[in-house]
Write a structure and sequence with these properties.
single chain; mainly alpha; globular
């Protein structure tokens, strides 16, 4: 294996070095990262500024016991808690049934579609994406820092705009590569009846995985306390907790439940995973894609749980061969957590 790597690495380096545009993009990324690190413009909204107030679980529980939470919000919190318990119980029942039958696959066997591009093209696309995204962030930071720039009021909306630009850049670059190779993401297309069946598959997979995900969340929380890390909400949820505006809530739900799952599954499972699978075994390709998926979320306190969710999505794509199933799983997951965040933000505003 070592000898094979010795022969492959120079050939792989030669492929990259012959591409002048790629070399320029790499140099540009290094330069922009240096600007961000040492002397670059400040991001329009830092995570600490966006998260105010934070959700205090002890405060919420105390207010519930003392009856200071409005009845409608208390009922909503109770329903959310019951839904969580029901999901956990159903997931445990499915896992117990699988353990008794010694069959852990809740889906029929399948294989994810093959793609014509390889890992070198995927890596080049990632570098081009970083170059474009960092350029946008530099320009955005300069515009916000300029006299007359909105340094506070539009912060959450700027954050949502940044996320939308990220998705647009990623989808544009992936679409360019796909068109170049004459590839269509046909696993996204489905008739209504097929889409309903794929949604049922997605829901079943998510329920099956929910106990494991809950365990990963608990483990992440334990490690955060042991290492003295401060648990913070997801960057997209933070503005909702801070302001709770109706228009902001609608935008967050649209991005988190529709645009986000669709874009991320096309990029990670539809583009990067099959390219990695050409060079790696299926388990390693799933793990590496999940690690990249979790890292790019930049939510370090929940990195383990997000990586575990990425493993689920990779496994679901490999087993079903349908990208739409992964999109539905992702949308279900985001919808549950965003609805929970909406309720909590309403409770915190009521208490304040």
């Amino acid at each position: 294996m070592i000898n094979a790597m010795r022969h492959r690495l120079p050939r792989l380096a030669g492929v990259f070095l012959r591409d002048k545009l790629f070399i320029l993009a790499c140099l540009w990324v290094v330069l922009l990262l240096r600007l961000f690190t040492f002397s670059g413009p400040r991001a329009p909204v830092s995570l600490e500024e966006a998260i105010s107030p934070l959700v205090n679980r002890e405060q919420v529980l105390t207010a519930l016991r003392e009856g200071r939470v409005p009845r409608r919000l208390a009922a909503s919190l109770g329903l959310a808690g019951l839904a969580t318990i029901a999901l956990l119980a159903a997931g445990l029942a499915m896992n117990l049934r699988a353990l008794i039958r010694r069959r852990w696959d809740c889906l029929p066997g399948g294989e994810s579609p093959k793609v014509p591009w390889d890992v070198t093209q995927a890596l080049k696309t990632a570098v081009y994406f970083l170059a474009l995204l960092l350029s946008f962030l530099i320009l955005q930071g300069a515009a916000v820092s300029a006299p007359g720039g909105d340094k506070a009021g539009g912060g959450p909306y700027l954050l949502i705009l940044t996320v939308c630009v990220q998705y647009a850049l990623a989808l544009g670059l992936v679409g360019r590569v796909a068109r170049r190779w004459g590839y269509a993401f046909s696993s996204l297309s489905a008739h209504f009846s097929s889409a309903v069946e794929q949604f049922r598959q997605a829901l079943r997979i998510y329920i099956f995985f929910f106990p494991a995900f809950s365990l990963l969340l608990f483990l992440s929380s334990f490690l955060n306390q042991a290492w003295g890390l401060r648990s913070v909400p997801h960057p997209l949820v933070a503005p909702l907790l801070a302001r709770g505006e109706a228009s902001l809530t609608v935008l967050l739900l649209a991005v988190g439940v529709v645009l986000g799952p669709l874009a991320e599954e096309i990029v990670f499972r539809g583009f990067f995973y099959p390219a990695l699978k050409k060079r790696l075994s299926v388990p390693w390709a799933i793990l590496l894609t999940a690690a990249l998926f979790s890292t790019l979320h930049r939510n370090w306190e929940s990195w383990l749980a997000i990586a575990g969710f990425g493993v689920l999505l990779g496994w679901a794509y490999e087993r079903t061969g349908r990208l739409l199933v992964c999109v539905f799983i992702h949308a279900i997951h985001n919808a549950l957590f965003l609805v929970y965040a909406v309720i909590l933000s309403a409770v915190m505003r009521a208490l304040s």
